[in-house]
Prior knowledge:
8 strands, single chain
Amino acid sequence: xxxxxxxxxxxxxxVRTGALGSVLLSVAACGPSDSDFAEFDTFRSPxxxxxxxxxxxxxxxxxxxxxxxxxxxxGQDTNxxxxxxxxxxxxxxxxxxxxxxxxxxxxxRTVRLCLSGAEQEDEAIVxxxxxxxxxxxxxxxxx
Length: 143
């Protein structure tokens, strides 16, 4: 029988706890890779000169994880994409549907994307496609 002192037991417990915490943190911190993203939808401006492309991917492999959202701007007659922003959408682990990401073109250069998830307040991303500037604001998304 091997006798272990209280301080050695405390040290072993700390090492185990630290190792478990490191494993959990590394799993939670792992974000999606580029290959995990899939196109969710494309929203064309009324004059057909601009497109906003939305891609989504699970934030990580854990159940009920948020979705990572990428917003790209694409000009007319080109496939070159400009990454505008990346955000997350918490929808209680459910797959995203059209009601979660809605677009309304205010005019030919301004689009309002409304993000609505089960576990977060609705928010709108208002994008000026000419200047590539955007703002984020609280919103109420229509169902």
